[in-house]
Amino acid sequence: MTKLSPLTLLASLAITATPVLAKSDTAGLGKSNFSYSTLGFQVGKVTLEDELVFLGEVYEEFSSFGVNGTFQAADNFAIGLSGTGFSNNGPRTEITTTSVSVNAYFPLPAGERIDIIPRIGYISTEAEACADGFCSTVDDTGIGYGLFARGWVVPGQFEVNGGFSDTNEEDSEGVLSLGAAAWFNEHHSIGFNYDTSEDVSAFDLGYRYTW
């Protein structure tokens, strides 16, 4: 899988969009259909396509968790910080992976109900494996990028979303995401999300506060 082409495309978009964002009223991009000033958290499950055997203990599923926040600084620009991880343990062993990312989002309205959102950012990941109290860690950093869409099915009440993301970290796989969210008013929503890649699938349920 080549990573330079989509990364270069999104980096170019980020660079060229910056002066436009400063004068978005005259550029005609229009305000996004959603607010991107949010705080949220998720819990879920990660399932491996092929089981992992560590010192005779078999790992197939992991519990996942995540927290995130974004701030919409302009009609077509938001910045966000997120932390995610998954873990599981057996009688003698434990495996945990965590990641932290800082992202820039460029929500662009594509009609009265749909936003298209390019994303680019920095990600740091750490994997830790422990056996009988002794632990070993491996970490990596890289550039994350993606292209997403959000749309109102029922404005103010129900949305659907999806997209594709990847990083240039070693052994990274492209991830396809699909999700939906039910809104209780303009501030509160409950959503679910399904992610799938070549070797891993994940499902999570989360809460989001929007202002």
Q: How would a textbook summarize the main sheet? A: 10 strands, antiparallel, barrel
Structural class: mainly beta
Mean pLDDT: 89
Relative strand content: over 45%
Count of helix runs: 2
The CATH architecture assignment turns out to be Beta Barrel
Low-confidence stretches: 1-27
Counted beta strands: 11
**CATH C-level name:** Mainly Beta
Features:
single chain; 211 residues; mainly beta; Porin; 11 strands; disordered N terminus
Task: Present the secondary structure layout.
Layout: H1 4-22, H2 24-27, E1 38-54, E2 57-74, E3 77-89, E4 93-105, E5 108-109, E6 114-131, E7 134-154, E8 158-167, E9 175-183, E10 188-196, E11 200-210
Antiparallel strand pairs: 1-2, 1-11, 2-3, 3-4, 4-6, 5-6, 6-7, 7-8, 8-9, 9-10, 10-11
Description:
The chain has helices at residues 4-22, 24-27; strands spanning 38-54, 57-74, 77-89, 93-105, 108-109, 114-131, 134-154, 158-167, 175-183, 188-196, 200-210. By secondary structure, the protein is mainly beta. It has a single domain, classed as Porin, CATH 2.40.160. Strands 1-2-3-4-6-7-8-9-10-11 form a ten-stranded antiparallel beta barrel. The model is unreliable at 1-27 (pLDDT under 50).
Short description:
This protein has 211 residues and is mainly β. It has one domain: Porin (Beta Barrel).
